[in-house]
Fold each of these.
Amino acid sequence: MSYFSLMLAPLEGITGPSFRSVCHKYGADLTFTEMSRIDALARNNQSTLSRLSIHSDTPTVIQLFGLKESDFSKFLKSFSPPPGFRGFNLNLGCPASGIIRLGMGCAMIRRVAKTQKIVKVFRDLGFPVSV
């Protein structure tokens, strides 16, 4: 198993493709996209899909958040991993009150069964996922 020594955390409004590429150039072994809402991705929302842009030379994990296994399944079945893609991360740490109120982000920490069901969707479709 390979371990990464330096990772660029996902930062809302900051970690776009160019910033991730620069950070990788200067030592980040792995980078993360900004978190993207799975229901928007499942609906093919172009603004949200644009957040998933990855430079081929930048190892990147796509961070997602959401609640419905069906949305994760719909999106993942149509997802074609681009060069540079290293896996997915399910956001369980966003502290924004609006996200928590909807039961997502850090509210998912208390929803163990729901989180397990979502992780199972990734595994069943053969995608690497971290939480």
Note: Residues 16 and 33 are 7 Å apart (CA to CA).
Amino acid sequence: AVDQEWSYMDFLEHLLHEEKLARHQRKQAMYTRMAAFPAVKTFEEYDFTFATGAPQKQLQSLRSLSFIERNENIVLLGPSGVGKTHLAIAMGYEAVRAGIKVRFTTAADLLLQLSTAQRQGRYKTTLQRGVMAPRLLIIDETGYLPFSQEEAKLFFQVIAKRYEKSAMILTSNLPFGQWDQTFAGDAALTSAMLDRI
């Protein structure tokens, strides 16, 4: 401060600014760890030539995160290798940078966690902390593996509990018309779930 010839007020203002910046960086690092991304991905790193089904402008508009404020869901469908997971993580990382709590999981991992918690009598706690607490829940690989009837019901409960309360991003390599095959062949449950997505 003496070398810079700062007044006490300037020095104090500088210290407060540095403290605020350090707190923001620590919070962002903590939210990134809590999100459990398999790797950090950004929009800048995404090759938009893969996204043939959606205009680049539409995909870039998701970067505004307004869908989170409106408690809307995003579903990214397409074959393997087009970058659905990359885009989902990029949106999640943008949310983390904006100070929003995010959680990334695969559908299989989520159902394993919920079914284990149910068997151990911790279902409500796990549902509240792991599913309802994050403002944005990203569920990757929906439909990649078929669900049992019980798993399909658990997945439906996740969708129903978050419906119009918090945002989600789901990725799948299956078109909606084939989702009932994944959800134990239960067309009624699948239809009710898709209505909430």
Note: The chain has a mean pLDDT of 92.
